[in-house]
Design brief:
mainly alpha, globular, disordered C terminus, transport, transmembrane, Na/H_Antiport_NhaC-like_C, NhaC_Na-H+_Antiporter
Amino acid sequence: MERAPETPRPVRAPSYLDAALPLVVLVVLVGTSVALFGMAAIDGPMQVAMILASMSAVAVILKNGHRWEAIAQSGQKGLSTVVGAIFILLAVGALIGTWNMSGTIPTLVYYGIKLISPAWFLPVAFLVCAAISLSIGSSWTTAGTVGVGLMGLAHMIGVSPAMTAGAVIAGAYVGDKTSPLSETTVLAAQLNGVDLFRHIRYQAWTAVPAGLIALAVFVALGFSQRGGLSDAVVSSELAHIDQLFDISAWNLLPLLLLLAMSMRKVPATLAIMCSALLAGVMATLLQPQAVAQFVASADESVVVVSIKGVWLAMANGFSVDTGMAEVDALLSRGGMDSMLLTIWLIIGAVTFGILVDDFGLLGKLVAPLLHRARTTGRLFASVVGTSIGLNIAAGDQYIALLLPTRLYASEFARRGLAPENLSRATGDAGIVTSALVPWNSCGAYMSVVLGVSTMAYLPFAVFNYAAPLLTLLLGFTGWRIARLPAGDAADTPAAPSPAREQ
């Protein structure tokens, strides 16, 4: 006897309680992990919180009649969006290890100690990172390379690591927001149908003032950093570095290769890995004593020791024991395995974000904002609030960039507001604030690469919160708000919530 086909369960639209519950669970679990474990929450407890919050979203989605297969497909789609980020993280881990072993980072630190006054270190760090990020269009590459060297230099000369991380991140996001080579800048323009360079010109009305504000703050903070180490201690550190490494300009070739490949728009993972491999080869040629000390295998040939050294530095990071704690802490870093906790956090955060987005939970919460945004200022505030909220709830800057565009595009058109207003607002709020959330992929990356917790550097990442504040100012004052030509405004009602039928 044949069984009758199973009748599919009806799919119900989420209620406000359904939409709010996973977010409440997320906030409670993340807050509890921080309260119980402090800064160590990022070492596992926060990842568990993200996974459990994702499970609470799954429970709500199943309750509303969606099938497990649809949930699994959504999760797979979310994971596919972070594959690129995962490979960048692994490549950066390898690069930090080989750059330490090859003398690239020690050389940057050595020259930096000799050339940069502690009083000017913070504004110089901001300007250097801004210039490099504008040149290559990547905040992650800037922070993971030059930023790492600047952090080491800060430790050596006694400048606050939290302030330095804030300066590095602020500078790195100048380019991420305004460089024509930045994928997020290009994406923000494309999503809104705006010419790329017109989008960048409109971004400049907030990026330039935000950058000047950040520079002024770092100049003021810099004069509070007189350097916590005496000249004798600094000279001792330089001597330790000089004894272990052959310091020369040749050691900077991996950095130059990375910059050249990035400016030629070589994919970030490939550019970073090529630089890491070049640094590994150079280490065997220019720093054989450092490689031999690292591998510590006296009964093997030079070739075998060299291969093992490069392999281990890429996998587990470079380590050294000079007898001086500051130097050891600077040089004993890197390796792909150092990124695994961050990858775990990103997987949990993006899975949560894609679930609450795909099944209409976020749309349910955002829809009332549209109906209450009766003025242009309130509409801009809704976009900024939604973008920042998505960086917190979804843990991914691409969701914080994409979803507000989908939610608000038709409303901007209906009110006669040109799309470059929306592209600027989502860029200011969706891109730059991502580094301020500990469990966001960007915040997690910056924290692990720079060695400073997100909450510690957050007050000093001035550019990253000045930009969205300036966007709000423009929205409420109406200054530099582009209008559509007469007759081009869409004569349509506001866009509905993007809840999707499964």
